[in-house]
Amino acid sequence: MTYSKSDPRGNQTISDVLILVGFSSLGKLQILLFVVLLVIYLVTLMGNLLVILLIKLNPSLHTPMYFFLVNLSYLEICFTSGVVPKLLVHLLVEEKTISIAGCAAQMYVNTIMGLTECCLLTAMAYDRYVAICHPLHYTTIMSGRVCTLLAGVSWFIGISVEVSKTMWTFSLPFCGSNRVHHFFCDIPPMLKLLCIDAWKIRTFSISVSVLFILFPFLLIILSYICIISSILKLHSMEGRRKAFSTCSAHLVVVTLFYGTALINFLTPKSSNTSEGDQVISLLNTIVPPVLNPIIYTLRNKEVKESFRKRIEKSIFSHNGRNWRMKIKVNENGGIKGRSQMFG
User: Fold this and answer.
1) What residues pair up with 175 in beta bridges, in sequence order?
2) Is 50 exceeded by the pLDDT of residue 272?
């Protein structure tokens, strides 16, 4: 990482510490925002961890769809944990500082998880396409090796592309004010701190967006066109309902993810205040991760049934242990009473 020692425009040199202005303008309302975000963050962690545990502990859920869902839940935990904890700390302190290394790490996590989720949602759409359009060959096509390959490629694309972009960004000289008008180290506000014209990075970012975000989105749309076409060919209404229910949760998640992302990236920045941009980014950061496990549990009978059985098993096991302990105590008491009587 290199930083400017001087700036021909007369701006001050950036030190090794940045200031994330964030929601400083809210004043005392930052405490209220802290409480709201803390609750949402804890719900996000518990919801996604619950989905992972349910799938791991129930062999009936060891299918390709739930394999991808485990990856998605793990991704959402990493995504929110890369931004929200630091934001929570900054809402309670006056000096909202972050080191250059910490800023780079935050950008790494945020961009990697965002791009990986695009690819992972595409893999999940392909899984639903095969399940509905080629049900007789589903187990053959979506083998364990294929699922692992699709998930691995998704993570590889996200990591390799975004690490390259982030390293490129932080290898360029920064100068001017060290105040970042955002609540985390996002790419657009960081590019404003560069001493040079960042048109090359912007061009690279646009190319990445078209290739790895827009193209996967088009593949998802194509998959659902084929899925809907196959569903409409079914003669029974019950068959159509069951077929659509198998992909409805994924469709809602895709709509939520790309909907918030499109609002964030396509809204004209010139017509919005900095605070408005931050609110949109905040919604994009916290809404999909907290709603995804809820969507998959509320709209999925298999997950709800597994959760119910797991709860019943835990309660039955607990009551069974208490019952056995009572029998043991009663037996010991009876034996002791008889020994005293005969003594």
Assistant:
1) 13
2) no
